[in-house]
Amino acid sequence: MTPHVRLSGVSKAYGAVTVLRDVTMEVLPGEVHVLAGENGAGKSTLIKVLGGVITDYTGTVEIGGEVVRLRSPIDAARRGISTIHQELSLVPSMTILDNLFLGEMPCRGGFVQRREMVEAARSALARVGVEAPLDTVVERLPIAAQQLVEVAKALRHQSRVVVMDEPTSALNIQEAERLFNLIAALKADGVGIVYISHKMDEIERLADRITVLRDGQWIATKPVAEMPVPELVRLMVGENRNPLSSLGERGQGVRGESASITGSAPALAVKNLTIDINGRRTVENASLNVQPGEVVGLAGLEGSGNSALLLGLFGSFGKVQGDVEIEGKVANIKSPRDAIRQKMALLTSDRKASGLVLPMSVSGNATLASLPKLSSGGWRSDKRERDVAEKAQKDLSIKAATLDMPVGYLSGGNQQKVALAKWIATQPKVLLLDEPTRGIDINAKREIYALIETWKAQGMAIVVITSELPELLLLADRVLVMHRGHIVSEMSRAEATPERIVHAAMNA
Amino acid sequence: MKRTPLQWLETPAVRALIALALVLTFGVIKNGDGAFFHIGTHRDALRSISISGLLACGMTLVVISGGIDLAVGSVLSFTAVFFSLASLRWGWSPWLAVPASLALGGICGAVSGTLVSWGKFQPFIATLVMMVVARGLSKTISGNEKISTAMANPDGTMKYVEVPPVFRAIDNQVFGNNLAVVTLIFLACLIVTWVLLTRHRWGRELYAIGGNEEASRLSGVPVAKAKLMAYVMSGIFAAVAGLCQAAQEQQGDPEAGAGYELTAIAIVVIGGTSLMGGRGGVGLTLVGMLTIGYLQKVLSINAVPESTRLILTGVIVALAVLAQRSKRS
């Protein structure tokens, strides 16, 4: 049987960082081919190559036995490869009809053939089971219906291969069921499906074959029968991945033991924290305690709610729903400003979007969160700010030519240190760290690990999120695992292994 | 930070100064039969651009926070009319009329700021609303007439009121007639703006908000309050400009100030303050003001007609923005 699509030796690098290395994969007619891997394993990159989004890869892509180089997503769609993206690619302010034909309206002599469009749209929507009128503006639809319109959009072409990136993440059980029926129908028509999901039950139910990626490399491709869940998890996580050995000389000796004293009030006590974002329940009844001098790791796959938990706890979505106590005292938090007053600090996961003011100076950024403390009667003191910034530069060894240069000119690692310096300057008791080492080099990572150990020894209560499991196991004294907005598992350092964490995170 | 000569050329201040130097050089060459070398020419150049400069001070604050204030010209007119009514018709003491006019400007700014901060309006829309409303208020309270020293009696004859001392004081010259008081008022406001931006916490907050509003919010910066205050200050500066305009013209004109907001924006942009927010400063605004002011003066002493002046001013603004942009690559 000729495969619909065959990728051979496909690699892709961003600068010096290789995100996909020599990956080979084929999609047969009528199969559901599950693509499995941890966050950052290269799944998204691979489907972007397949969907014509990434065009500067090396290696070859064959469609129907013919070597092609896809030039754009539309090009890919015309050749029969449709992608249903995890983030919706619909234009919210346009109607269902216009969205379905975005970029390729059927035209004759420059005039849109509306009747043709309406007919094609009706049958496409009937297939996925959307009953809204065609002229409904997409943003008025519930998220699940939008997701189904997205599916309909992908299916309007005579597709050979349909790529689905976590298509059920916004669907309820009935809607997901309808999607599964649709997948079965597509299979029967000989369409090949590439399916990405973090949900084990879906994988077991739908998959014919599974390909595992790890760190951008192909690991294995096997029929589902030969890959039971424990084996799948083992392949995803990798064997010999002792976090300490992978970090070279940073061994057990460097790690300070937890300074927590049993019986004392926890630095942070959260009970029944619930977070709704735009009407969607993102975190439900989460409870956790963190002792002074303890590092708690908050594991979870993308969309599990762990980042939202930290943001919500910090008052970023308004008044916190749930009981929060800091050092035994009730903390009434309505905004980040309140949280900072209560001695909390939050390093966000994206320093460019929400961490740093890039055009502002290093010292301006380092003192931004402690500005009220450093000024008197509203007037700033350059000297006090300078003292704080210089101390931070020394303590965190920030490499900057001057403290007056815009922070945007620094390297990623030094930017991250400035973002950390901003929070340390507030002398927090509770330090929330979301991806503290994202996008920085290994030396800067080690320096940040050492800093976290220092702050821990000083008695800060620290919660850390990281998508790199070795890092999580290196830093955390205790690991909490989240799945779909709930904390589903708790492990001590001794109990926590990459396999167990991934198991829990996929609710397997 | 050590800079090579080439890097110095690329700083916003130096780029802005180059534009000013070009305009001045042009003035020296085409000096209008020596008119450019009379001190009076410079006094008048500064005097006539001071009003726009006052508006530009407030505009700088708003633009650094990432916003824009289209209402300044209308607020100028509204406060000028109000000040004239109070002084020429109602006989208010300047000790009451001046603070009341400034408060009125501040209230207009507060309305814009509230729409932006809490109403989540885009600054363009919020201040467009204020621009139209303030113009309407200006026409309403004036009965759509210029409020001048000439008053119609019920029998149709005209009577004239004395020009109040406060008008004369504002429209005066000091240092042996070599500097207009209006220019002094502008310089005072410029210094206030500079001190607020560089020494006060609020100034730092404006830069932070303009540079990255989300990061500022998560760092505990009172974003809504800081933005509101920028519009309030802009309104107050527009009121100061309104007082100056009323004193200079000895009347409150409900049509005054139309299009001034665009001159103020042009001044801020020529100086090199980014309309994206987060960068720039009032020193740059001073350079921008001098560039526009002298450009207009040099063209006028060379008897270039207004139509051509407008076109050239537009071209200069476009060139200045292009020059500013090429530094960020």
Structure description:
The complex is a heterodimer of chains A (508) and B (329). Chain A has 508 residues and is an alpha/beta fold. Chain A is built from 19 helices and 24 strands. In chain A, helix 4 crosses helix 5. Chain B has 329 residues and is mainly alpha-helical. In chain B, a hairpin with a 5-residue loop joins strand 2 and strand 3. The interface between A and B is medium-sized, with 31 and 23 residues.
Question: Which secondary structure elements does this structure contain, and how are they paired or packed?
Answer:
The complex is a heterodimer of chains A (508) and B (329).
Chain A (H helix, E strand, L loop, with lengths): L4 E10 L2 E11 L4 E5 L6 H8 L7 E6 L2 E3 L4 H6 L2 E4 L11 H5 L6 E2 L2 E2 L1 H15 L14 H13 L5 E5 L7 H16 L3 E5 L3 H7 L2 E6 L2 E7 L5 H9 L5 H4 L21 E10 L2 E11 L4 E5 L6 H8 L7 E6 L2 E2 L5 H6 L2 E4 L3 H5 L6 H5 L4 H4 E2 L2 E2 L1 H14 L16 H13 L5 E5 L7 H16 L3 E5 L3 H7 L2 E6 L2 E7 L5 H8 L3
Parallel strand pairs in A: 3-10, 3-11, 6-9, 9-10, 15-22, 15-23, 18-21, 21-22
Antiparallel strand pairs in A: 1-2, 1-4, 4-5, 7-8, 11-12, 13-14, 13-16, 16-17, 19-20, 23-24
Chain B lengths: L4 H5 L2 H18 L9 H26 L7 H18 L4 H24 L5 H20 L4 E2 L1 E3 L5 E3 L4 H6 L2 E2 L4 E2 H19 L1 H11 L1 H6 L4 H27 L1 E2 L7 H12 L10 H20 L4 H20 L4
Antiparallel strand pairs in B: 1-6, 2-3, 4-5
Helix pairs in contact in B: 2-13, 3-8, 3-9, 3-11, 3-12, 3-13, 4-5, 4-6, 4-11, 5-6, 5-11, 8-9, 8-11, 9-11, 12-13, 12-14
What would the keywords be for this entry?
heterodimer; A: 508 residues; alpha/beta; six-stranded mixed β-sheet; 19 helices; 33% helix; B: 329 residues; mainly alpha; two-stranded antiparallel ribbon; 14 helices; 6 strands; 71% helix
Structure summary:
The complex is a heterodimer of chains A (508) and B (329). Chain A has 508 residues and is of the alpha/beta class. Chain A is 33% helix and 26% strand.
